Amino acid sequence: MGDAEKKSMEKGLIYTSLKGVGQGVSGPGSNLPAEKMQWWEDQKFGMFIHWGLYAIPATGEWTMFNQKIPAEEYAKLADQFNPKHFSAAEWARVAKEAGMKYMVMVTRHHDGFALWNSPASYRHFDSWETAAHRDFVKEYTDACRKAGLHVGLYYSPLDWRFPGYFDPRELPDNAALLKKQTYGQVEELMKNYGKIDILWYDGGWLAHKGSDADAAWFWEPLKLNAMVRSYNPDVVINPRSGMVGDFQTDEGGADVKGPIIPFPWEKCLNLNATSWGYNKAQNLMPLKQIIDMLVNTVDRGGNMLLNVGPDPDGVIPPAHVERLKEVGQWLAKNGEGIYQTRPGPFQPVDDFYGATYSGNKIYIHLLKMPAGDAVIKLPPTGQVITACTVLHGEKVKFHQDATGITLNLATVQPDPLVTTLVLKVKGR
Ligand code: JFZ
């Protein structure tokens, strides 16, 4: 991200949907150069997985804190956590069927329970030392790679078991234990599970206050991530360790609007709106809303990380699997205008259309058909359009002059979700 952009963003806060853009510490070699981000920007669509002890009460991943459950009490859930139908291969199969190209699994959330064999875990609060006696991170990373998906790990430095987290200045010894656990566990994750492609920190903010950047004095993320890169030099790191991220994050289900964003960013949101972790209260995202969110994100230069919350047995709810399958069916037809593309050359028009390009093709994504005369007018572009068709479909009449490109959509059979048109560009 160039200094000019950082300054303009900080000044104008142009991209209000992106929290703390460009904030955080950085230094020599702390972040990846643009060329090492291209593979990530090519992927576009990933699966986020929130799974852990909190799946048992089925009231979301913040259950321990929201219901003020004492750590000793909450820890007893580990005795019940012994999933019989957990299959990382099935998670990977569902992700691939949905058209997803990478996965990010929660390895440890704010409740402190680690889903791997973690000697660095405070009081051995992990799935190896408890009822399951399994290393789920090992099973996940192996299955992810076997399925040809890129491997991402989510890690929460925040651990509610440590009162020092809530008052690091008054309880420096306990806070130091928390920091020691974080450095020990991040090192285990970076050295014991092969090449990790994405590291997704969360919960860097101290005492649930301020920003991740405000907590950099405590976590020393330049030191932490120098260790991370000593094992995985090209790992893509998110913006929540207190260090500037290799990409920016827009979290939640708010619609994606506005201009193309000129730096790597990721929209992360829930398939089930009630919580990231498994919840008996289900509010499944409609298919049209998912496709619109994906297209709106990609047409503005972002990736979309869509979250599932498997049940206590490690099973992704069948309704979620079915919905993801439907997403995959749209991508099977329209993926050419999504994967390995870049946003533009036309700026998106909110709630109407957006564009991507790749090679000698420009892809127009129509969220809805134009009203009235079935004509859409695109702004002028310096390129000469030689043909226009519906992707894998019929020809579309068009006229190009200095005022722009007029597409006549009267004969177009719209896709029930989002229609993709292809403009062939001369000479490229
Ligand atoms: C955090 C977690 O607390 C939550 O449980 C989930 O894991 C989610 C992915 O991340 O929640 C956040 C973190 C940051 C913001 C909002 C919710 N933020 O910066 O707006």
From TrEMBL:
<dbReference type="GO" id="GO:0004560">
    <property type="term" value="F:alpha-L-fucosidase activity"/>
</dbReference>
<feature type="site" description="May be important for catalysis">
    <location>
        <position position="268"/>
    </location>
</feature>
<dbReference type="InterPro" id="IPR017853">
    <property type="entry name" value="GH"/>
</dbReference>
<dbReference type="InterPro" id="IPR000933">
    <property type="entry name" value="Glyco_hydro_29"/>
</dbReference>
<protein>
    <recommendedName>
        <fullName>alpha-L-fucosidase</fullName>
        <ecNumber>3.2.1.51</ecNumber>
    </recommendedName>
</protein>
<dbReference type="InterPro" id="IPR057739">
    <property type="entry name" value="Glyco_hydro_29_N"/>
</dbReference>
<dbReference type="InterPro" id="IPR016286">
    <property type="entry name" value="FUC_metazoa-typ"/>
</dbReference>
<keyword id="KW-0326">Glycosidase</keyword>
<comment type="similarity">
    <text>Belongs to the glycosyl hydrolase 29 family.</text>
</comment>
<keyword id="KW-0378">Hydrolase</keyword>
<dbReference type="Pfam" id="PF01120">
    <property type="entry name" value="Alpha_L_fucos"/>
</dbReference>
<keyword id="KW-0732">Signal</keyword>
<dbReference type="GO" id="GO:0005764">
    <property type="term" value="C:lysosome"/>
</dbReference>
<dbReference type="GO" id="GO:0006004">
    <property type="term" value="P:fucose metabolic process"/>
</dbReference>
<dbReference type="GO" id="GO:0016139">
    <property type="term" value="P:glycoside catabolic process"/>
</dbReference>
<comment type="function">
    <text>Alpha-L-fucosidase is responsible for hydrolyzing the alpha-1,6-linked fucose joined to the reducing-end N-acetylglucosamine of the carbohydrate moieties of glycoproteins.</text>
</comment>
<feature type="domain" description="Glycoside hydrolase family 29 N-terminal">
    <location>
        <begin position="36"/>
        <end position="336"/>
    </location>
</feature>
